[in-house]
Amino acid sequence: MSDYIEGKRPIIEALRIGVPLRRIFLADNAKRDPLVEDIMRKARRCDVDVKLVARAKLDELSAHGSHQGVIAESKRFGYVGVGDLIDAAQAYAEANDGRALIVLLDHITDAGNLGAIIRSAESAGAVGVVIPNKRSAHVNATTYKTSAGAVAHLAVAQTSNMVQAIKRLQEAGFWIAAASEHASDYLWDVNLKGKIGLVMGNEHDGVSRLVLERCDLAGKLPMMGEVSSLNVAQASTALMYEWLRQNRPASTLRGAEQAGAAKGC
């Protein structure tokens, strides 16, 4: 299923950040102002076809009627299968001292949060992300923007059943750790060494009961301030980097020690 991006500036931004577009529909009576000319230039540079259509066609495609005479159709994102992600993680673990991270998102609904989590996952060295194929955010132009392009470099799998996806990971030797404010242990007291599937929950309800019951471990972040919780993208970053800290390569340690010695520490 394709997504549509409406309006001149959003399409210019989509072309700028590299959202894969199938085509751009431009009203045949659209005024060739500087923004339209910019769209035309960027479309040629990105090899995106621009098709002139009747404005009535754009009205049919528009979700909110503010297309400004131009709508872009994005290509369907290339999701991978959960099995493909597991295979990639096994290969990664074999080459990296047995460590691998897969992030599972239990019905995250905001595409911006999804993009921010993907950005952190790619930075922390995760192999990929698993999302539900229904009632969940999916990769779209917003995700590309908030991931700062990281979505183009990280595998994203869709599943129809998160519990079954977790079971497959466990059968492949992964320990599944959930982030839950109801956990008894703090994050840094949870053993995240080796092959880990990290489960993050919905923005409002957290990890669902059925998913939480299937997890092997659970941890929470300490809250020292007046705010009761972090945004899910911020919390995901903290947990992913705790996994990275616990699994940091020896070469990273040696580099830090050498840097400290050079500074006289």
Automatic annotation (TrEMBL):
SMART domains under this entry? SpoU_sub_bind
Please list the GO terms describing molecular function. RNA binding; RNA methyltransferase activity
Q: State the SUPFAM superfamilies in the record.
A: alpha/beta knot, L30e-like
Q: Name one GO cellular component term.
A: cytosol
Keywords (A to Z) from UniProt: Methyltransferase, Transferase
Pfam families, sorted: SpoU_methylase, SpoU_sub_bind
The RNA 2-O ribose methyltransferase substrate binding domain extends over 4-80
GO-annotated biological processes: methylation; RNA processing
> Which family is annotated?
Belongs to the class IV-like SAM-binding methyltransferase superfamily. RNA methyltransferase TrmH family.
In Swiss-Prot or TrEMBL terms, this protein is called: 23S rRNA (Guanosine(2251)-2'-O)-methyltransferase RlmB
User: Can you name the source organism?
Assistant: Berryella wangjianweii
Q: From the UniProt record, report the name of the gene that encodes this protein.
A: rlmB
